[in-house]
Design a protein that fits this description.
158 residues; mainly alpha; Chorismate Mutase Domain, subunit A; 2 domains; two-stranded antiparallel ribbon; 4 helices; 2 strands; signal; Chorismate_II_sf; CM_II_prokaryot; chorismate mutase activity
Length: 158
Amino acid sequence: MVSLWPATLGSFVWVTLALAVASNQTFDAECYNSPLPNIPPANDTRSIPWGTPGVELANGTTCCDSIEEVRARIADTDQQILQLLGERAGYVREAGRFKSNRSSVFNQAANDVVVQRALNASKADHIPETIAVEVYNKILETMLAFEYCSYDSYHSED
C-alpha cells in the first residue's frame, strides 16, 4: 500500500507558507497601509536590520540605534501611559458622582464616540487602526468596571 502522507504533508507545507505570505500582505495593508520590509528570520540580534532610525523625536533627532535604546524608550513611554491612565481613572471616578442611577453608568453611544475619536486620531498619528480600536475598547471595558465600583461607593447610602 502506497502512503500519500509525504505528498499530503508537502502540499500542506506549501499551502501554509503561501497563506502566511498572503496574510502578511493583508496584515500590512490593513494595519500599516503599506508593506512591511521582508526580513528573513535570524537568531542573532541585529543593530538595525534595514534603513535608518525611523522614530522622530520632539527635539528633531531620531531613535533608535540599538535594541537597548528601543527598550528604554518603550519603558519611558509605558510610564507616561500609566500616568495618563491614572489621570483618566480619576475622571472616571468623578463621573460616577454625576450619574443619577447605576444603569446610567454604561453609555454605549459615548463609548462609540471615544473609539471613533481614537480611530480618527490614529490616522493622523500614524498608529495602526487595529491598535487604536483594540486598546480603546479595552480601556473602556476596564474603566467601566472601575466606574461601577466608584458609582457604588458614592451612592452606597441610596
